[in-house]
Amino acid sequence: RLCAGRFAALEADAVDATVHVTIVRGAGQCFSSGYDLKPAAADERPYYTAGGDGSWSRHVTEGWVHIWDLAKPVIAQVHGWCLAGGSELAVACDLVYVAEDAQIGYPAVRSMAPPDNQYHTWLMGMRAAMELMLTGDAISGTEAVRLGFANRAFKSEDLEREVLAMAERIAKVDPEIAQFNKRLVHRQMEAMGL
Q1: Could you tell me which residues are beta bridge partners of residue 79?
Q2: Per DSSP, what are the bridge partners of residue 96?
Q3: Which of 8, 68, 23, 10 is nearest to 168 (CA)?
Q4: For residues 23 and 76, what is the distance between their CA atoms, to the nearest angstrom?
Q5: CA 91, CA 88: separation in Å to the nearest integer?
Q6: Rounded to whole angstroms, how far apart are CA atoms 134 and 137?
Q7: What's the pTM value of the predicted model, to 2 decimals?
Q8: 20-37 as b/e, with b when 16 or more CB fall inside 10 Å?
Q9: 14, 63 Cβ separation under 8 angstroms
Q10: Digit-coded pLDDT (tens) for 73-95
Q11: In angstroms, rounded to a whole number, what is the distance separating the alpha carbons of residues 116 and 68?
């Protein structure tokens, strides 16, 4: 679960001259099984969000945009399950590398609600997005790459090594240039309506 402490770590990386790229990954057997769902959505949140209708959706989406706006590249290293809010966390990152056997989906569309971050159509196109939104099915890491959710898929045992190699490659680029390039891509997505 990405909470205020985790945002603080990402923010610290963004201003640390010795850090050029950050990797977000899950501990244990999966990347993330999703939001920490509680009976009361009004429970204390890790950072301020205006109240009123839609406050939960606004709260989590503001978190994803917060990652999007960080100066330095953030990589999602996805293994195991990557579900619901976990998939939103992954797509908020600049690059997504997955294990071939990862399982990525948004099962909440079957009984609760659509994603707060409407990424499916933007990343995967209308047909794939429609199928995933109507079924709630999960896709493999390999399929996630084919559909545009992720950059590359690797065997589980190779994932960490490959992600570190990519992070090292990115770290060779001057941080100011990397920041400019990252913002350029994001601003184009925003201009297109994302």
Answers
A1: none
A2: 76
A3: 23
A4: 6
A5: 5
A6: 8
A7: 0.90
A8: bbbbbebeeebbbbbbee
A9: no
A10: 999 999 999 999 999 999 999 99
A11: 15
